Amino acid sequence: MTEPALSCHALRLRAGGRDLVAGLTLQVRAGERLALMGPSGSGKTTLLTTLAGLLPPASGQVLVRGVPLAENPGLRLELALVLQSYGLLTLLTAAENIEVVLRAAGRDPRQAMADAAGPLERLRLARHADHLIEELSGGQQQRVAIARAIALRPRVLLADEPTAEQDAVHRAIVLDELMAAADRGAAVVIATHDPEVAERCDRVLELRTANPRHAGSPAGR
Fold first, then answer.
1. Is residue 133 assigned to a domain?
2. Which domain holds residue 183?
3. pLDDT digits (tens, 9 = 90+) for 155-176
4. pTM exceeds 0.85 for this model
C-alpha cells in the first residue's frame, strides 16, 4: 500500500504550559482535502506549523511519505505552508516573492518567472505582479502567499485560514485553486473557521483542546 503523503503518530503539542493537542494520529493521502476546524486556541495553527516541520512536537512524530520528518529535514521541500501572517518580503514585488522561493527550490530564473505567472493570473493578481507587497491590500497579499505555495507544486499544501481576508468572489477563486492543487495530487490541509471551506473538503478534523475528534465521513454529510 502506498504511504500517505503526510501523517502523524501520537502527536502531542503544548503551548502556554498546557496541551493543545494530545495523542493525535492522522493520515492524509495524496489528492485528499482535510479541513481543520475548532475554536480559537484549539491548536489549529500550532498543528499546521508542526506538520510543516517548523515547530517540534512535545512528543510523537510527523512523517512525509512514511519517513519521519525530524530524521530527514530535506523532506520539508515537499511541503508548502501558507501562514496567516503571509510571510512575504515587503521589499519585493508580488512576482518576485514567488520567484525567489522557486529559485531557492532549484528552478532557473526563466522557469521561475513562468511558474509564478500562472498562479498570479488565476488568483486575479496578474496586474499587481510588479507591485511591491506594501502596495497591496491584505486580501491581495494573502493571495500572493497562496500563489507562492501553489507555484511550488508541493506534495503537501498546508494553509492557515486562507479565505479569511477574501471577499465572496475571491474566496471562491482561492477555494477553487486549493481544490485544484488536490486534483493535481497534493495532500491539502486547511485550517479554517469557514463552513464553506469544510464543505469542499473530503474530511474534517475538529480540534478541541487536548481532545481532537476525527470526523471520518465527508464533510458535507
1. yes
2. 6-215
3. 999 999 999 999 999 999 999 9
4. yes
